[in-house]
Amino acid sequence: DAGVIQSPRHEVTEMGQEVTLRCKPISGHDYLFWYRQTMMQGLELLVYFNNKAVMDDSGMPKDRFSAKMPNASFSTLKIQPSEPRDSAVYFCASSLAGPEQYFGPGTRLTVT
Amino acid sequence: RKEVEQDPGPFNVPEGATVAFNCTYSNSASQSFFWYRQDCRKEPKLLMSVYSSGNEDGRFTAQLNRASQYISLLIRDSKLSDSATYLCVGGLTGNTPLVFGKGTRLSVIA
Q1: Nearest residue on chain B to A105, judged by CA atoms?
Q2: Cβ separation of B97 and A100 shorter than 8 Å?
Q3: 3-state secondary structure string, chain B?
Q4: Which of A9, A49, A101, B79 could bridge across to A93 with cysteines, CB 3.0–4.6 Å?
Q5: Residue A60 neighbours by CB under 8 Å, 6+ apart
Q6: Pick from A22-31, A66-75, B50-59, B80-89: least confident
Q7: Residue A106 β-bridge partners
């Protein structure tokens, strides 16, 4: 069975550029989560969806971040403009009926 | 104050040793607790759920103390392959977002 798929796996970009991260959840899962992980802050929830609707985006800096889920099998997290402090590993996770979340392999973002 | 706090370690233990991690949570309304394992440069994966009555899975035992608001993970007979970061996780109910601790790093040495 395919797990959560994320692309790209690595992204290096210059400050000010737009970055788009992509996620395909496990088929049938109706919850999707975007996290950011850094050494200093650990794993932080940015936004999560239930049945494609945003449930909570209070962890997301809305001036530069936006998240969408146009269909049940695809979500994007966009950063525009990107800044060096956005450098982190971004994880997407999905879940079904219970609290257990399945994480994708992550996108390692470096903004120079 | 973080909702879930853990000692970051590292815990360096010899093979065969028993090691225990504790984690405290601040939200007394939290109902669901888990331990996740994260290998270096990999994604977190669920290790085990934590039940009020305590639960055991092979060499791993998890316990919850609601009165003191802490969760523990005990690993017996440590293996080299247990080397990883262990994330303590709490949540309210159902599919409300989980809150992750920053993790405790374990290194098991030969």
Answers
A1: B43
A2: no
A3: CCCEEECCCCEEEECCCCEEEEEEECCCCCCEEEEEEECCCCCEEEEEEECCCCEEECCEEEEEECCCCEEEEEECCCCHHHCEEEEEEEECCCCCCCEECCCEEEEEEC
A4: A101
A5: A34, A46, A47, A67
A6: B50-59
A7: none
Coil, strand or helix: which one is A86?
helix
Residue B47's identity, in one-letter code, is L
Q: Who's near A47: CB < 8 A, 6+ residues apart?
A: A33, A34, A54, A56, A57, A59, A60, A67, A77
Percent of chain A with pLDDT over 70: 99
B100 neighbors B4 (Cβ within 8 angstroms) = yes
Supply the pLDDT for residue A57.
Answer: 94
For testing contact with chain B, the best of A34, A50, A100 (most B CBs within 10 A): A100
CA angle A10/B98/A92 to nearest 5° reads 20
User: Do A101 and B102 make contact, defined as CB atoms within 8 angstroms?
Assistant: no
Residues from chain B contacting residue A43 (CB–CB below 8 Å): 44, 87, 100, 102
Q: Which residue in this structure is represented by tokens 């399945």?
A: A102
Residue holding tokens 């989560």? A33
Cβ neighbours for B30, distance < 8 A, ≥ 6 positions apart: B90, B91, B92, B99
